[in-house]
Structure formats: C-alpha cells, structure tokens
User: Fold this.
Amino acid sequence: MNKFWIYLKTKQFRNTLLLIFGSVFALVLIMFFSLGVYTRHGSGIPVPQLKGLQVERAMQLLKDQGFDYKIDSVYVLDKTPGAVIEQDPDAGTNVKENRLLQHWPIIA
Assistant:
C-alpha cells in the first residue's frame, strides 16, 4: 500500500491525470460546439398562420412552403365546416425543412 501512495505523488501519475482531464474537457467542448451545427439549431422556416383559413387554402399554403402535414377533423357546432380552428405548432414557430408535423390543422 505504501508503494501506491508513492506512485500517486510521481510526475508520471500527475501528467497522466492531467492528460485524462484535458482529453475529457476537449471532448466535451467539441461535442458542445458541434451539436449546434449537427442539429442546424436556429435554422428553419416559420409556420404560417392557418387558423381561420379553409382547408384547401391551408393545404396549398403548406405545400408551397415545403411542409408535410397531417390533418385531423372535429365537429364544432358554431364553426364553418372546412375551416382550420387550431394548429400545432403555433404560427411563427420555426420548423426545420422536411419534417412531418404531427398535429397540423384541426378542421371543423
């Protein structure tokens, strides 16, 4: 056990320990800065305002901007049939290209 404590005080051990910490720190920094590039953070196309539009107009607007969409329908007594009453994500939200948005317009 005494030899172990002596080894911990050597220059070789100290250099090895510094190399390990430096390598881990460098790896974390590389991952941190490259993650934004890899995920294209901050880029995207703003979602248009669809509430109140007729479904045909909303579908054409989404198609023109390159969005894929999924439509759900509900019956609402006081709304015009075929009108968009809700959308997810909200208007103005940035969405990356070639993404299928799961809960797009909800049509009355």
In short: DSSP finds three helices and five strands in the chain. The chain has a mean pLDDT of 84. Strands lie at 45-46, 72-73, 84-86, 94-95, 106-107. Residues 11-38 form the longest helix (28 residues).
